[in-house]
Design brief:
The protein has 561 residues and is α/β, with parallel strands linked by helices. The chain has two domains: 260 residues, no CATH class; 216 residues, Rossmann fold (3-Layer(aba) Sandwich), CATH 3.40.50. The chain has 19 helices and 13 strands. The protein has a seven-stranded mixed β-sheet, with helices on both faces. It has a two-stranded antiparallel ribbon with strand order 1-2. It has a two-stranded antiparallel sheet with strand order 3-4. Helix 4 runs antiparallel to helix 6. It is elongated. The two termini are 40 Å apart.
Length: 561
């Protein structure tokens, strides 16, 4: 299976994605262009055979474009009745009629079918000697750009050339639903995308721009007249839709495809070499990553082999060593299960808080951490607020770990988002090979905790204790009870939204009146978020609140971000 890797720079990925889109667009258009081109060629030859006397002797392989005499005759000196500039009819000297009585008639048909005003076939792309037998040689006269002379079929032609044929050939217009000659028409817009993509000096694209390109490519292939009913076109649509997935992955096969696209879409050899040089820098990233992956795989194999050997040495099934190994494996599986849940269900968020159902983004791409302060006691009962500058200041105070942490803030201040920030840091801390961190050092601090459990209190109003909430919320986690029993010192529990929770009767512990009950024999670290009024109304004591943090919103630096 092809190795898959996420490139660090998302804009690179979007550029590659758009380039691949051009290839899939070509896959969807080529069979259509081939079929319509053959129909047109058949109609032209059939028309010539019906109208010419004597009938043309097809095929012809002797004519040259520079010396071919058209069937039509100039109106007067320099004036072509078909309104073509520099038509062969305007320069009759050294022009000879087709000896097989066919090429001059095809010449006329090409001019008459050309959609530009005045008609301007690009004769240099085509070989006149093959007009009578090769339909694509006729089609290439409608590609108004150099570089297509050696293309022998629609499959050999890039999507830009295919779009030229569709736009410039009136015969194709009857097979297309939209107006391809109107200003800013869809087909012309998509044709222009090739230049915008492959002339990018940075080889970068914004995701929104790349998706806009792909949407228009899809719209071309879903043209209502014929393309939408063609299986090959709709298969290409499926590939384009796959490119729009949020977690688009670049593989070694992608790189081969995009390099092919660069070669096919480069108008000149110099342009191809320039693009190839730029692309090699991008490919180097993947090469290095593949080396790292190979080394990690080797290390994993060594560790796995070593573990198997150790298990073999344990002759008694219920030996303490084997049980410990099994327990460590269960812990690892639990952590993986939690991370997958958080990444797919919790850390996909709307960029607009008041529209949570809008398209979701990765939490880390849009989160800006607000200013956070803690209360510092001074002499004579006075206190002051100090800004928190690193994650360690949240979980330690006077060098002592803090187990009961309360984060307060008004509505919309970002309490739930702060919980997700902690979850994101924890997931990164336990991702293989992850060593990136921000200036707040959240990842570094989260490495100290083996497990993190998030509970939305508004969804647990009828539940009295934290233990019950965990057992209900994470009932699919195997060995949960054992984890909570044995590893509580390395567990964080996030209780989000105390102001939205209440219980019908008094809690069973007098020291926790109005709070979710916790087991005092456990050594969890508990982070609770709430609006300030709830803390005041419950009169929670300093004995319970070991660390009180306030979310203060954004300063000028945050606002700019």
């Amino acid at each position: 299976m092809a190795h898959e890797i996420h490139l660090k720079n998302n804009k690179y990925r979007q550029w590659v994605k758009a380039g691949l889109g051009l290839g899939y667009l070509k896959e969807g258009l080529a069979p259509f262009c081939d079929d319509i081109g053959k129909q047109q060629h058949h109609d032209i030859i059939n028309q010539i055979q019906q109208t010419k006397t004597p009938q043309p002797n097809v095929p012809c392989g002797t004519c040259q474009i520079t010396t071919l005499q058209p069937d039509h005759i100039r109106v007067s000196k320099g004036i072509c009745p078909l309104k073509q500039d520099k038509c062969n009819c305007c320069f009759p000297n050294n022009k000879r009629p087709c000896p097989n009585n066919v090429c001059g008639a095809i010449y006329d048909s090409i001019i008459q079918y050309h959609a530009s005003i005045p008609p301007a076939p690009f004769w240099k792309n085509s070989d006149v000697q093959q007009w009578s037998t090769k339909p694509w040689e006729v089609c290439k006269c409608f590609i108004n750009a150099p570089g297509y002379k050696d293309k022998t079929s629609a499959v050999d032609t890039d999507c830009t050339g295919l779009l030229h044929v569709i736009i410039n050939n009136k015969y194709f217009h009857s097979h297309i639903g939209c107006n391809v000659t109107g200003p800013n028409n869809l087909f012309s817009k998509v044709r222009q995308y090739r230049n915008e993509i492959f002339h990018s000096s940075s080889m970068e694209l914004e995701e929104s721009k790349a998706n806009c390109y792909i949407d228009d490519m899809i719209a071309v292939l879903q043209d209502a007249k014929e393309l939408v009913h063609r299986q090959d076109a709709q298969q290409a649509v499926g590939k384009l839709q796959d490119l729009k997935r949020k977690e688009f992955i670049i593989t070694t096969e992608n790189f081969k495809e995009i390099l092919t696209q660069i070669k096919e879409n480069a108008a000149t050899k110099e342009e191809y070499e320039e693009l190839k040089h730029k692309f090699s820098e991008l490919k180097a990233q993947m090469s290095e990553a593949e080396k790292e992956r190979t080394e990690l795989k080797r290390k994993f194999t060594v560790l796995e082999t070593k573990q198997k050997e150790e298990i073999k040495k344990l002759k008694v099934e219920d030996s303490p060593q084997l049980k410990q190994l099994q327990y460590e494996k269960a812990k690892s599986d639990c952590r993986t299960q939690l991370m997958e849940h958080y990444c797919s269900d919790v850390l996909k968020v709307s960029a607009i808080p008041l529209q949570p159902d809008e398209e979701n983004y990765n939490f880390s791409d849009i989160y800006i951490r607000p200013t956070i302060t803690s209360k510092i006691e001074k002499n004579r009962g006075e206190s002051e607020e100090k800004e928190i500058e690193s994650m360690s200041e949240i979980f330690t105070k006077n060098r002592e770990p803090q187990k009961f942490i309360y984060v307060v803030g008004d509505a919309g201040s970002g309490k739930s988002s702060f919980c997700k920030y902690l979850i994101n840091c924890w997931c990164m801390a336990h991702s293989d090979g992850h060593n990136e961190d921000d200036e707040f050092e959240g990842v570094k601090e989260m490495k100290k905790f083996d497990f993190m459990f998030y509970i939305s209190l508004r969804h647990n109003i009828k539940i009295r204790s934290i233990q019950e909430m965990l057992e209900m919320r994470y009932d699919k986690i195997k060995n949960l009870t054992k984890l909570l029993e044995n590893d509580s010192r390395k567990i964080i529990i996030l209780l989000d939204g105390l102001d939205e929770w209440s219980f019908d009767s008094e809690t069973r512990n007098e020291f926790q009146a109005g709070l979710p009950e916790r087991d005092f024999t456990k050594k969890y670290t508990i982070v609770t978020t709430s609006r300030p009024w709830k803390i005041h109304s419950l009169r929670v004591s300093n004995r319970e609140i070991r660390q009180l943090l306030k979310l203060k919103g954004f300063d000028e630096t945050h606002e700019k971000k």
